[in-house]
């Protein structure tokens, strides 16, 4: 369905930083974040839209490599405190950790009924060939989009980049160069952007009816990734899984969720689970997920490892932070991990 805009829609822009607003340091030539007025001065076309656009900015704006859970809480708080005043929210963000932020916010903002559209760009907005201007304008239009009944078209956290709108917690940064920098490898686009903006209505997430927005501010960072590779030493694995203060591990495995079949490997994993560590299995492949296809994968499940199914690594690690932050442990944590909370797994 092509786009219908809510007349006089109220949109809040939240500028966190990223290339979109950066300018070149004249001494070093390196890009560094710059203030919001510079960014907005470069998009005079925004005034042509029949919307009321306000803005709020991180001070100072950051390169998204400096993004962290405290900042996610800041963003979530901005949305919660202004939720009733705006029809939609556009978060301007660096691309490097955008998929983590989108995933984390999706879990933090339970029963979200308004669009939270995250965008940025590969080239600064002040550059002649920038992709930032178009991304910003399209993101604002999507944040103002309604269905024929007048309800927000998007009621979830999504990433808008170049030609596509993706579910935030299904997205991954795929390119450090291309304008179509993001992709959701296991889920169709929520919208395609060409001459018109076409929503894929069947793919859009809808929260449970009748529930109000509930914002979760606690994220537990006692988590880490463990990446398997041929040649990983049992002693290395054992050491990693015994990292002090760690409660949850997202293990990145091969193919359909496979790991070495060596009993030594499995004993180390089983012992870590028995000590209370939660381990979730996600694949290193960009497409597909963990399946019950091979003995090499089944053995991990037998050792007490949870299947992350077709979750992205970004969604799995932020879901772990979120569920641990909710105080869930062992069985309850296992059960919640297995459920799609915000459409992050199939
Ligand atoms: N380093 C930048 C950032 O993530 C890259 C970008 O915005 O594309 O903030």
Please describe the topology of this protein.
Elements lengths: L3 E2 L4 E8 L5 E2 L6 E2 L3 H6 L10 E11 L6 H14 L5 E5 L5 H11 E2 L5 E4 L12 H12 L1 E2 L10 E5 L2 E4 L4 E2 L8 E2 L7 E3 L3 E3 L14 E2 L7 E5 L6 H8 L6 E6 L9 H12 L3 E6 L11 H8 L3 E2 L5 H13 L4 H9 L8
Helix pairs in contact: 2-3, 3-8, 5-6
Aspartic acid binds next to loops.
Protein model, in words:
The protein is of the alpha/beta class and 346 residues long. The chain folds into two domains: 10-215, 3-Layer(aba) Sandwich (Rossmann fold); 223-337, Rossmann fold. The chain contains nine helices and 20 strands. The strands form six sheets. It has an eight-stranded mixed beta sheet with strand order 5-2-6-8-10-11-14-15, with helices on both faces. Strands 17-18-19-20 form a four-stranded parallel beta sheet, with helices on both faces. Strand 10 and strand 11 form a beta hairpin. Helix 2 (69-82) crosses helix 3 (98-108) and helix 3 packs parallel to helix 8. It is globular. The chain starts with a strand and ends in an 8-residue tail after the last helix. The mean pLDDT is 93. The structure holds aspartic acid.
């Amino acid at each position: 369905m092509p786009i219908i805009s809510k007349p006089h829609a109220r949109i809040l822009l939240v500028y966190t930083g990223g290339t979109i607003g950066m300018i070149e340091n004249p001494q070093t030539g390196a890009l560094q974040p710059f203030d919001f007025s510079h960014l907005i001065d470069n998009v005079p076309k925004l005034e042509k839209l029949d919307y009321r656009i306000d803005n709020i900015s991180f001070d100072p704006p950051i390169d998204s490599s400096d993004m962290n859970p405290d900042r996610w809480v800041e963003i979530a708080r901005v949305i919660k405190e202004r939720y009733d005043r705006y029809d939609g929210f556009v978060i301007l963000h660096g691309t490097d950790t955008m998929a983590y932020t989108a995933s984390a916010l999706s879990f933090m903002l339970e029963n979200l009924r308004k669009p939270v559209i995250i965008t940025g760009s590969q080239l600064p907005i002040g550059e002649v060939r920038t992709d930032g201007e178009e991304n910003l304008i399209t993101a604002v239009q999507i944040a103002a989009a309604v269905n024929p009944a007048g309800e927000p078209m998007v009621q979830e956290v999504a990433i808008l980049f170049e030609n596509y709108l993706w579910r935030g917690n299904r997205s991954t940064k795929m390119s450090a160069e291309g304008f179509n920098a993001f992709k959701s490898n296991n889920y169709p686009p929520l919208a395609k952007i060409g001459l018109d903006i076409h929503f894929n209505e069947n793919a859009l997430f809808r929260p449970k009816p009748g529930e109000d927005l509930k914002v979760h501010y606690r994220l537990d960072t006692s988590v880490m990734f463990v990446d398997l590779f041929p040649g990983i030493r049992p002693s290395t694995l054992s050491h990693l899984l015994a990292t002090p203060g760690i409660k949850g591990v997202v293990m990145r495995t091969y193919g359909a969720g496979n790991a070495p079949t060596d009993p030594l490997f499995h004993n180390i994993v089983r012992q870590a689970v028995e000590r209370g560590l939660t381990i979730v299995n996600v694949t290193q492949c960009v497409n597909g997920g963990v399946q019950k296809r091979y003995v090499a994968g089944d053995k991990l499940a037998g050792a007490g490892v949870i299947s992350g199914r077709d979750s992205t690594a970004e969604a799995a690690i932020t879901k772990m932070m979120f569920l641990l932050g909710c105080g869930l442990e062992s069985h309850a944590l296992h059960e919640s991990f297995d459920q799609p909370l915000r459409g992050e797994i199939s």
